[in-house]
Model the fold of this input.
Amino acid sequence: MLAAAQRLRRSTDFAAAVRGGRRVGRGAVVVHLTMPPATDPSATTSPKPARVSGAEQSSAPARAGFVVSKAVGNAVVRNKVRRRLRALARERLGALPDGSTLVVRALPAAAEASYARLTTDLDAAIAVARSPRERRPR
Done:
């Protein structure tokens, strides 16, 4: 189980992560990752420093939320997938910077996926979402 401070609960938090974060799909999952501006390598630096102190920023732990729709399966299958993803995310939240928001959306393939496959898919998606974006010349 995730600690209460590590869970996303409000729909506005989910919407902010989905709209503002990097989206990466791998196999049976899609990951939306939002990182704080100070640690986000793809963020542009502004001339004015942020007014949030380091103590306030570090006090907010990395948080995770899960989206498992009816397309994945019936309630038993959805809960099984959600439990597996929650266990995997709990192990990986410590590696994310404080203030990060992770939303994991299960695709219908997650219903039949093994725990090992979910592990590799989630690890690959998070790794790509954390990597800096490549700038393409125009």
Remarks:
- The radius of gyration is 16 Å.
- The domain at 7-37+62-130 is CATH 3.30.230.10 (Ribosomal Protein S5; domain 2).
- The helical segments are 11-20, 54-59, 75-93, 115-130.
- Confidence is low (pLDDT under 50) at residues 44-57.
